[in-house]
Specification:
five-stranded mixed beta sheet; Nucleotidyltransferase, domain 5; Actin, Chain A, domain 4; 19 strands; 335 residues; 10 helices; six-stranded mixed beta sheet; alpha+beta
Length: 335
């Protein structure tokens, strides 16, 4: 099973973003998991350019997100996108094909895992293995996963939220829910539709989430102007919203994440629970960047919450570190 020669890559193939870590070089690619194809199925744009086109394309071009809820929803498109990313990262130069380790949600089926491996091999990987994202995120966030102590990781991505307690390089208990960053965007879209009869696209909702999104009152509430289409007369319209409204819109999603953390703590062995009380909870993934989410969870659980140093890269960096000790983590990998 060991990785021997040639280029070795760790890939966080996320619902929203793909991050590639090359052994010896670090992060070599970070792009949205988005692809634009024309009516003949030919690739027009991938990654950043494709995401920029979302909601602005003529009818003959479709912007597709090939992953939904952390799993491959469109196999052919996912394979083409991976092929493009592997080439762009410089991993497919010459005769050598890279070996890859890919992060996947802990809640996915064996069939879904095999689909990821098959897509990677068809895209040009010599060999592909998968690692569960909570384990990779915990390693990437610097948690002492090799010790006989409980470490809790909460990885909030675009499609899934993964909560796991890890000890001795193994996941002791875990829960995975298909509620994360995408659902936050949807909640903002629904709020604007309901409150202001204003229709906005996903990219606008994401901008609102990044600029005003928060889980717990800010020291000073902020405002921004939002433009969209009036649902009543169909004309362009702009409204001003504030961070308090966005917090209200996101509340059901944040509560679901909190409930998952609590229910994971409820099934954690007592000895490991004591470790978590001492060491706290670590947040990773793009959702960890939601302002004051750490404060919200601490206030509701009484447990200290820390945010990973680079939450967006934690899975890719962690999988990259696992590549360097692949034999130690053999039992946690799937091929």
């Amino acid at each position: 099973m060991g990785f021997l020669s040639g280029k070795e890559l760790a890939i966080d193939l996320g619902t929203a973003n793909t991050v590639i870590y090359m052994r010896g070089k670090g992060i070599v690619l970070r792009e949205p998991t988005v692809i634009a194809v024309n009516s003949k199925g030919k690739i027009v744009y991938v990654g950043n350019q494709a995401k920029y086109m979302a909601g602005k394309t003529p009818f003959e071009i479709k912007v597709i997100r090939p992953l939904r809820d952390g799993v491959i929803a469109d196999f052919d498109i996912a394979e083409k996108m991976l092929d493009y990313f592997l080439t762009k990262s410089g991993a497919k130069r010459g005769i050598f094909r890279p070996r890859v380790l890919i992060g996947v949600p802990s809640g996915i089926t064996q069939v879904e895992k095999k689909a990821v491996i098959e897509a990677a091999v068809l895209a040009g990987a010599k060999q592909a293995l998968v690692i569960e994202e909570p384990m990779a995120a915990a390693v990437g966030a610097g948690l002492p996963v090799e010790e006989a102590r409980g470490s809790m990781i909460v990885d909030i991505g675009g499609g899934t939220t993964e909560v796991a307690v890890i000890s001795l390089r193994g996941i002791v208990v875990s829960k995975s829910i298909r509620i994360a960053g995408d659902e936050m965007n949807d909640a903002i879209i629904s709020y604007l539709r309901r409150q202001y009869s204003l229709l906005v696209g996903e990219s606008t909702a994401e901008q609102i989430k990044i600029r005003l999104g928060n889980a717990y009152p800010l020291d000073k509430e902020e405002k921004m102007e939002v433009r969209g289409r009036d649902l009543i007369d169909g004309l362009p319209k702009s409204v001003q919203i504030d961070s308090e409204e966005v917090r209200k819109a996101l509340q059901p999603i944040i509560q679901e994440i909190l409930n998952t953390i609590k229910s994971t703590l409820e099934i954690t062995p007592p000895e490991l629970s004591a470790d978590i009380m001492d060491r706290g909870i670590m947040l990773a993934g793009g959702g960890a960047l939601l302002r004051n989410l750490d404060k919200f969870i601490t206030q509701r659980t009484g447990i200290l919450v820390n945010v990973a140093e680079d939450p967006l890269s934690a899975v890719a960096i962690g999988a990259g570190k696992v590549l360097e000790k692949v034999d130690l983590f053999r039992d946690t990998l799937f091929s």
